[in-house]
Amino acid sequence: MTSQSNEFQDRVIVVTGSSSGFGKGAALAFGAKGASVVLAARRTSLLEGAASEIKASGGDALVVTTDVADAEQIRYLAEQTVARFGRIDIWVNNAGVGVIGPFENAPAEDYSRLIDINLKGVVFGSLSAMQRFRIQGAGTLINVGSIDSEVPLAYQAAYSATKAGVLSLGRALNEEIRLSGQEKIKVATVMPWAIDTPWWGHAANYSGGTPRMGAMDDPQKVVDAILEMARDPKEECPVGWKGKGSYASHKLMPGTTERISANLAHHYQIETAPPAPATKGTLFTPMMSGTGIDDGVRERMEREERARKIVQKLPEEK
Questions:
Q1: What pLDDT is recorded for position 317?
Q2: Which of 153, 157, 244, 272 has the most neighbouring CB atoms within 10 Å?
Q3: Is 65 part of any domain?
Q4: Largest alpha-carbon pair distance within the chain?
């Protein structure tokens, strides 16, 4: 992997969902390596802060406040990018939200909004990117899916469905590119395992417990994977040994892999998670909390587990 500080010099890169999490991490990393980065999300002030960091590191940045569920706003995002920089070299569809809990617990409006953001937002972004790439004859589209794209996860059923749609979209687009002969256009789907980012605190939650999952990965792994797909795109990129293991296992033993994943989710989210009230998270209204790349979920879970074990050891009242 190259370590050149200017390896993305003169590249124009759009990153949606870049106000926090690995979207922000990727945007900052691209900017530090010389790219002109277009930051898109709903939280304008956070985008402006990231843009200032990128400019201070030697890159250039444009902020376009965007709700990816709105096709017109995505079209405007593409238009503003081309108006400012003349082209789009790489488009990263990263924006996404979650709904956690038994499937029947969440209202239909939450699932509708989830689909609007996670699937329709990626379709809209891919459409704008592909239209520009066809004109240019080249470009790289990076869609951030999930290991749930391959292995559906209990208590994240609709989320898994949207991420499966993202993976299917990428597969179909790659076939269309092959048939067209425009081989300089690339589509990659990045598939992380559970990652310690603000995603958990931003998710709509109807599980009764604080959002969590076992064996979370560091967001830097996903940032590194996004940059690697920008350098050398591959159709599907499971991230980390847990992601790669789950991906491979599901190909060989789908039923067993799904049961193991479901048992893991049940243990951490239903059996051991500290109580939490129902919330719609950031589905409809952005939160100003959760602004970093790493959100400290792993540290929080360690504290929760220690407290749970202490309570278990206390003598019962008679």
A1: 52
A2: 153
A3: yes
A4: 77
Which residue type sits at 66? Answer: T
Q: Which residues are catalytic?
A: 159
H-helix segments, 33-120: 44-56, 71-85, 108-115
Count: domains in the chain: 1
Is residue 28 within a helix (H) or strand (E), and if so which, with residue range? helix 21-32
In a domain, 79, yes or no: yes
5 lies in some domain: no
Classify residue 1: in a domain, yes or no.
Answer: no
Tell me the C-alpha distance between 52 and 230, whole Å: 23
Q: What is the pLDDT of residue 3?
A: 45
Residue with tokens 């998670």: 273
CA 4, chain centre distance (Å) = 26
CB 188 within 8 A of CB 143: yes
Domain that holds residue 291: 12-313
Find, among 65, 55, 125, the residue nearest to 90 by Cα: 125
CATH code for the domain of 167: 3.40.50.720
What are the structure tokens assigned to 255, written together?
């039923």
Q: Taking residues 199-221, report their average pLDDT.
A: 96
Statement: residue 72 has pLDDT above 60:
yes
